[in-house]
UniProtKB/TrEMBL annotation:
Function statement: Catalyzes the decarboxylative condensation of pimeloyl-[acyl-carrier protein] and L-alanine to produce 8-amino-7-oxononanoate (AON), [acyl-carrier protein], and carbon dioxide.
Residues with the N6-(pyridoxal phosphate)lysine modification: K244
Complex formation: Homodimer.
GO molecular function, one term: pyridoxal phosphate binding
Catalytic activity: 6-carboxyhexanoyl-[ACP] + L-alanine + H(+) = (8S)-8-amino-7-oxononanoate + holo-[ACP] + CO2
Pathway, per record: Cofactor biosynthesis; biotin biosynthesis
Alphabetical list of PROSITE patterns matching this protein: AA_TRANSFER_CLASS_2 (PS00599)
Requisite cofactors: pyridoxal 5'-phosphate
Residue stretches spanning the membrane: none
Family statement drawn from the similarity comment of this UniProt entry: Belongs to the class-II pyridoxal-phosphate-dependent aminotransferase family. BioF subfamily.
GO terms (BP aspect): biotin biosynthetic process
Protein name (record): 8-amino-7-ketopelargonate synthase
UniProt keyword terms in alphabetical order: Acyltransferase, Biotin biosynthesis, Pyridoxal phosphate, Transferase
Length: 401
C-alpha cells in the first residue's frame, strides 16, 4: 500500500463499515432518456426515482431549443458571469423567471444547492440569527453554517415553536432569517409558508423559502408554494431549481432588485463558477413556456399522485402520518425503518423491474429509512398499477408487508 493510500485508509474503513451494515451502494447508470420506463444498467425498469415531474427533461421543444442554442452560441459559455460569461440567454431566462414568479428580479445559479448555500452565506454574518425547520434541505444547512450566523432549529412545521425561538432573541442585535422548504424532499409534505411568513412579519425577520420541489408542482401553472398560499409580497427570498420539474439544470433566487444585485456581487458560487452553456437557459425558457401552455401536465401529475397514494395505502404500506409526516405531493415515501432493510428492498425491487431508491441514514433520521417513490405526469395508469404490484409482491417476500 502506498503512502497516499495509507493516509486515506480511514475512508476504506468507513466504506467497509457501510458494506457490513448493508447501506453501501453503487451508482445506477441510465442508458437512455429519463422516462417512466427506461433502462438502468442495461435492464428495463419502471422509473419511480426521477424528479422529472412533468416529463420536460425529454420534451421535444426543450431538446430542440437546446440544439438550436448550441448551434448558434456554442457548447460552452467560456467564463464566469461577472467576467465574460453572461450571455443574452442568461439574462432572458432571469427576466422570464422573475415575471413568472411575480417578483422584481432573479439570478440563476449553477445548481439549486449553490443557490441556497450561496444566498444564505452571502446575506448573513456571525452577528445574525437563522430560524430553520429541522427537516430543511442540506443546502440550507450548509449555507447557514457557512454564514456563521447563530442557528436556531424549530420543530418540523411547528410555527409556534419558530415564534417562540424568535421571541427569545427579538431584543438581541442582528438580523433574523426564517427559512423553510416549500415541499420537503424526503417526506413530500408542504411547508407552512403562509403562517411562517406571518411570524416573520411580526418579528421583522427576513422570510426565505426553498421551492425546489414545489416549482412546477404547486400553485398556478407551477408557480410554487408562495402562489399556493397566496403569499406574494410576503416572502423576501424565493429559491427554486431548474433541474426537477423544469427538466434542465440549475437553481435560481427571486426577490427584490437590490437582493439580486447584491447576490451578483457577493454570492460565491455565482462569482466563482462558469455560467451555464447556452443549451441550458434555452431549454429552460422553453420549459416555462410549456408550463403556461400545457396545464394538462400538472393535472395528470396530480391525478397520478392521488391514485398511486391511495393504492399504496390500501396495500398496507406505511406512507407516513404516525411518527413521520404525511406526503401531500408526488413525493410518496414508503417507510421501512432500518437502513439495511430499505437498501435490501430497493435492490430487490430493481431485480423485479422497478427503480425506486432507498433513502437511509444520515439523509433521514435513524429508524426512518424509506423507499422514496416519485410519480410523474407521464406515468400511465397501467404502469403505476404494475409498479404497485411489484412493490407489494417484493415487500411480502421481504416481510415488509
Amino acid at each position: 500500500m502506498s503512502e497516499t493510500r495509507k493516509q486515506l485508509g480511514y475512508l476504506t474503513e468507513q466504506l467497509d463499515a457501510m458494506r457490513a451494515a448493508g447501506t453501501h451502494f453503487r451508482l445506477r447508470v441510465l442508458d437512455d432518456q429519463q422516462a417512466p420506463i427506461c433502462h438502468y444498467d442495461g435492464k428495463e425498469v419502471i422509473n419511480l426515482a426521477s424528479n422529472n415531474y412533468l416529463g420536460l427533461a425529454n420534451h421535444p421543444k426543450l431538446i430542440e431549443a437546446a440544439v438550436e442554442a448550441t448551434k448558434k452560441f456554442g457548447a460552452g459559455s467560456g467564463a464566469v458571469r461577472t467576467i465574460a460569461g453572461t450571455m443574452r440567454l442568461h439574462m432572458q431566462l432571469e427576466e422570464r423567471i422573475a415575471a413568472f414568479k411575480n417578483v422584481e428580479a432573479c439570478v440563476v445559479f449553477q445548481s439549486g444547492f449553490a443557490a441556497n448555500a450561496g444566498t444564505v452565506s452571502a446575506i448573513l454574518g456571525k452577528e445574525d440569527f437563522i430560524f430553520s425547520d429541522e427537516l430543511n434541505h442540506a443546502s440550507i444547512i450548509d449555507g447557514a453554517r457557512l454564514s456563521r450566523a447563530k442557528i436556531k432549529v424549530f420543530r418540523h412545521k411547528d410555527v409556534a415553536h419558530c415564534e417562540e425561538l424568535l421571541a427569545e432573541v427579538q431584543n438581541e442585535p442582528g438580523r433574523k432569517l426564517v427559512i423553510t422548504d416549500g415541499v420537503f424532499s424526503m417526506d413530500g409534505d408542504i411547508g407552512p409558508v403562509g403562517a411562517l411568513a406571518g411570524v416573520a412579519e411580526r418579528y421583522g425577520a427576513i422570510m426565505m423559502v426553498d421551492d425546489a420541489h414545489a416549482s412546477g408542482v404547486l400553485g398556478r401553472h407551477g408557480r410554487g408554494s408562495i402562489d399556493h398560499f397566496h403569499a406574494h409580497g410576503r416572502v423576501d427570498i424565493q429559491v427554486g431549481t431548474l433541474s426537477k420539474a423544469i427538466g434542465s439544470l440549475g437553481g435560481y433566487v427571486c426577490g427584490s432588485r437590490d437582493l439580486i444585485d447584491f447576490l451578483y456581487h457577493r454570492a460565491r458560487p455565482f462569482l466563482f463558477s462558469t455560467s451555464h452553456p447556452p443549451a441550458v437557459p434555452a431549454s429552460c425558457l422553453a420549459a416555462f413556456d410549456i408550463l403556461e401552455s400545457e396545464p394538462d401536465r400538472m393535472e395528470r401529475l396530480w391525478r397520478n399522485t392521488h391514485s398511486f397514494k391511495a393504492t399504496l395505502a390500501s396495500a398496507g404500506f406505511n406512507i407516513g402520518g404516525q411518527n413521520t409526516p404525511m406526503s401531500e405531493t408526488p413525493i410518496l415515501p414508503i417507510i421501512v425503518g432500518e437502513s439495511a432493510k430499505a437498501a435490501e428492498f430497493s435492490r430487490a425491487l430493481f431485480d423485479a423491474g422497478l427503480m425506486a431508491t432507498a433513502i437511509t441514514y444520515p439523509t433521514v433520521a435513524q429508524g426512518k429509512a424509506r423507499i422514496r417513490t416519485i410519480v410523474t405526469s407521464e406515468h400511465s395508469p397501467e404502469t403505476l398499477a404494475q409498479a404497485a404490484e411489484i412493490l407489494t409482491a417484493t415487500a411480502k417476500k421481504l416481510a415488509i408487508l
